[in-house]
Specification:
There is one protein chain. The chain is α+β, with helices and mostly antiparallel strands and about 130 residues long. It folds into 2 domains: about 30 residues; about 90 residues, K homology (KH) domain (GMP Synthetase, Chain A, domain 3). The chain is about 30% helix and about 30% strand. The chain contains 3 helices and 6 strands.
Length: about 130
């Protein structure tokens, strides 16, 4: 399935992204560790955000199928960059599951991390470390 996003350089180190279907917009900025001002998500921040969103979305689908109450689940994700070559070195996620999740449900939900197409699209050298609370 093909999908389009329009990206326009807005100046001052910022890029405006427009979602092809909805017209929703996101601004990006260079991160402070790469000479920017960090006024918005950086492109690599969006990669980390995409990973967290993808995992939660897949978990939510699985939870709905299994009849698991999933509202309020969250992921805090940390992006660690490496310098040479400059790229994402690892993504560390803390998954906070709703109260009342059984050990078996937790195991099934955490298996969703490996099913995320975003994670599967990253270089194999990018370490993905997710734990559940």
């Amino acid at each position: 399935m093909a999908f389009k996003i329009n990206a326009v350089y807005a100046g001052d180190d910022q890029v405006e992204l427009t979602h092809g279907l909805s017209g929703a917009k996101i601004m990006t900025d260079l991160p402070t560790d790469n000479g920017g001002r960090g006024r918005a998500f950086s492109p690599t921040d969006l990669a980390a955000a995409s990973m967290a969103s993808c995992v939660l979305s897949i978990m939510a689908k699985m939870a709905a199928r299994e009849g698991i109450k999933f509202e309020g689940a969250s992921i805090e994700i940390e992006k660690i960059m490496q310098e040479s070559p400059r790229r994402i070195a690892s993504l560390k996620g803390i998954v906070r599951l709703p109260a009342g999740i059984t050990a078996l449900q937790k195991e099934k939900l955490m298996a969703c991390v490996k099913a995320c197409p975003v994670g599967r699209s990253l270089l194999p050298e990018v370490k993905l470390e997710f734990t559940a609370e």
